[in-house]
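Q: Hi! First time asking for a complex rather than a single chain. Here are the components, and I think there are two in total. Is that enough to go on?
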Amino acid sequence: MTQIELRGIQKYFGAVQVIKDLNLAIDDNEFIVLLGQSGCGKTTTLRAVAGLETIDEGDILIDGQPVQHIKASDRDIAMVFQSFSLYPHMTVYENIAFPLRATRISRNDVDTSVREIAGVLRITGLLGHKPSALSGGDMQRVAIGRALVRRPKAMLMDEPIGALDAKLREEMRAEIKRLHIKQGSTTIYVTHDQVEAMSLADRIVIMHEGILQQVGTPEEVYSQPANMFVAQFVGSPVMNMAQATVSETGGHASVQVGGRATGFEFPAALANRLSDARAENGKLTLGVRPEGVLISREAREGFMPVEAHIIEPLGSHDIVDLKVGDQLIRARTKSGFVPGPGKAVWARIDPAQAHFFNTATGSSFGIRL
Amino acid sequence: MAAVQTRSERALNRVAIAAVLVITLIFLAPIYWITSTAFKPRNLATTIPPTVLFEPEISPFVKLFTKRSQLREAPTPEEYAAAPWWERMVFDGGEKIVRSGRGEVQLSGYPNRFMNSLIVAITSTVLAVGMGTFTAYGFSRFKVKGEADLLFFILSTRMLPPVVVAIPMFLMYRAVGLNDTHWGLIILYTAFNLSFSVWLMKGFIDEIPKEYEEAALVDGYTRMQAFFKIVIPEAATGIAATAVFCFITAWNEYAFALIMTNRRAQTAPPFIPSQVGSGLPDWTVIAAGTFLFLLPVAIFTFLLRNHLLRGMSFGAIRK
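A: Yes, that's all I need. Here is the structure of the assembled complex.
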């Protein structure tokens, strides 16, 4: 049972503020992923929780107890580093046993624990090896074993699979998920890879320039991004963004993009709410993910003629760049749906998948169907 | 590197090997000379051209360790028969071993000087490497105010020839009574080696990723424990290399040992040439003393050779 709470964390490196008023409550057994670009403060946050970095203001609470003044060795937290940091002069067995040797656990109990965790991680056969003889994936298994073996209050992972190649990354991702389900411990996981974040997290915490942007389940941050940064950071290919003007014509709303006179059709209900938002905030940006752009090969009711510009065939699907006025909008289609570049197709935007942002502040109006 | 060598690469390789062999021979020649002289009968030591083939004997070593005097008259056959084999060797050379009133063999000054050398060199090496490692760790891991200046200051102690300060040092030592003491030389050699040790160890410790210690810190160890359990084993290569250099410097030091010591704490380097002395020197005895003097450094370096050769690339960290 471990809850972690961050209250009003401020952290400076010299004159640069790397964490700005961070507040976050993490539940017992929760798998939290801190997601952001490098330099966004996610690793510093993690190291602050571990006790490897001091904070300038705020409280870090573990199970309600403030720990910001407690040494790392006394916080009972384990950490897995991107570099693995296996002690090269020790065997795999000694590496895993190392945290237990810091405590007053008997030799027999150490042995039992090491062998048990090695069994869970399927590395029993490697216990006698030196780390330098292991593959990247096995090194990381050992690093995870070393972290889990003493059943810490919480598990911190700093890009644990970032150094592995793509195939191994996928494998280890599944392995980490399996372990979390099996062992269950409060986990904070740092990554810049949104696919990793989506696939592992109970909740994702997105950070940008030291500021927390949004906290939510993978589903929430994907379908209800709080601002343009989150919208573009999560999801691949990235969400289309286009400055838009909204008008009301003939019982439905029209959203004009790229300087074209005719706009995409939206239900009238949206138009009223959007005009309110516009009145308050001025400019507006339309955001839509490629799968929210619907394409037809023939003219259809509510679809607008556009020109296919570039087609990227990706096997399972194609990504098609559509020219809408002077704006390019990317759409996701079945493979080979659009016969070739330069062809005319008809497009509309799925109103349920459209997002509207305040161009000036970047935040979402929260107006969705 | 290509697995298959071209013809020109092979030729170049042979030239390189030949060059290495020649250079090695040049460097080994004096060592061969000393070693062979140490085992020669006295009458063959100074022949011209040098004698290469001879029956090796250990009489130079017997003479090295004992106090001897010239025989005025040859020993009686009974005396000769009663003497142990090593004493007969001395008789054969026209000398006799000096015995005390109770008949105990009197030792020469050499074993004592050799022990002094060992005590001074080992203690000062342990101190210089130990203190150097701690200092280097501090400089490497923590923000030290004026770090660059301090490091430069430490290095600056090596920027003038040590003999320049020999006279002031001698006067200081005499004033505080460190003259002709083991600690006097130990302090001197430690101070002399420390700057070198700090700089060398800082380089090695900088190479050890901080993450190792951080991992140990979150694994429940204090920084001191992390230092001894992680940093020291990881820095073993550097510690070995530094220790070899410090040991060699302390072991070979001549000038200060000559000035600062004369009897109690005198080390082997000033003692050996003093035995050349007046009259006809026995070169085989001097060669034996020099030969034995070479051994500790050779053994020490040999024992640490794996550490010296092992590169820093060894490890399990992804960079």
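A: The domain at 240-358 of chain A is CATH 2.40.50.140 (OB fold (Dihydrolipoamide Acetyltransferase, E2P)). Let me know if you'd like any chain examined more closely.
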